[in-house]
Amino acid sequence: MPYWYIYCAIFKIKTNKIMEDNKVKSSIIIGLAVIITAFILGMAFKNRNENLDSISVIGLGTKDFVSDEILWSGSFTTKSFDIKESYNKMISDQKIVSEFFVKKGFNPNEFSFGAVQFNKRFREVRIENGENAYNTKYEQVFDGYEATQTISFSAKKNPDLMKRIEAVSSKTSELINSGIELSSNSIQYTYSDLPSLKQSLIEKATKDASERANKIVNTADGDLGKLKNASMGVFQITGQGSTEDDSYGGNFDTYSKNKTARITVRLEYELE
Fold this sequence. Notes:
4-stranded antiparallel beta sheet, Alpha-Beta Plaits, 3 domains, Translation Initiation Factor IF3, 272 residues, alpha+beta
């Protein structure tokens, strides 16, 4: 038998074997693909049914309250080319300011002065070149020292002191008669027991969400199942009657004495 004939026969046998092996591998791959696809579709169908068999509701908890803490401050300045003279003038003005508030009914321990802050002042001077109008220069020239001091008032759960601070904050212009201009900052109002307030709002919001879910299900002749998930929204504090939109990071109003606190709670229940 010729060698070439034997060679062709052997080549044909190997080729057939390779083709059979490839068919087996292809069958295995197709089988695995079918199994994986069936698993993915099954999980998707399961999750779809789970979503259809649940209800999600949002409850709201709100409360109006009055701030029981107050903070108010102001500042006054003196100016001089000599730093010692500026400081001595500040000490003199501090005494006048202190006496002013004592006469308004405050005890010296009901307000406090901050540390004196010194800053160098400069003014801009224009230097013109007579020969070249386009060669104008500007220089910073020392213009003396400015000393600044703050005075602060605060009260916590003290309605009488709060009223006196509110009243005197609008009368500081009277110090102008003594040669002192006191710059007044806005009054800040806060609340001393925010943790308890927040807890009570969470309870209200949770109860509201639960009642909403029950009403919806009962109206549809269904039955409410187990609680699947619960999440809390952002804690918001705004002035009463405010139309301010909710902020992603939460609002915390400090300028209104009468405030409204609110929080939302989302509950998701299974349906039976």
